[in-house]
User: What shape does this take?
Amino acid sequence: MTHFNIETWRAWAPDLDSHDDWLAWHASPRAVADEGQQPDVSFLPAMQRRRLSRLARMAFHVSWPLAEAHPHLPMVFVSRHGETPRTLAILADLARDEPLSPTQFSLSVHNAIIGLWSIQRGDTSEMTALAGEGDGLEQGILEAATLLGEGAPAVLLVVAEETPPQLYAPYIDDVPFSYALALLLTPGDTCQLSLRAGSGPRSEWPHALNLVRTLCSGQTSLTHHWKNRQWNWSLDKA
Assistant: This one.
């Protein structure tokens, strides 16, 4: 059993940003139209914004306000698919025998976002990038809880996925639209997460979006199945 507190959270998706937006989505969940809308990162200098992909902008947008009161904050970044559009562009250049951009390559690797985050915030705290499966949220919770257990006063957990390019549509079916979720986790026992062997129906929505629905409601329990793993959540709403 893993114990922790969710001090605060923030989520973004196309046309879903404020808490009221997510309350409305929770009441009537749907696949929102993803037309490449960009989250606001105007808190960064223009030259720095240019280096951020859409996925990075999503992660920065939800994370920055949660980190403002914590100049030194360990971070766990989780994305199953990562910088798929950047990677596809690099592969297209290779197919055309064009020279590769070192900058584009360096920004396409899975830990590029936490590297940019560390630079922008001047924070050298421990940071980890995970490429989890469908239960990447829970894998990230375990990593963050380990950091809390080692004495970190707080850990920032970020889960983000971008709608893949059309070429990948037949192979990627777990990103209904682009989204990002940031959780500020602290030591405590208002939330518990346990793992047991067991199969069951796959969730209609990605685990991170299901958690947002739970946080928007009075629900105190949540169960996620992925392959032969059953994740049981308990959240104290008191």
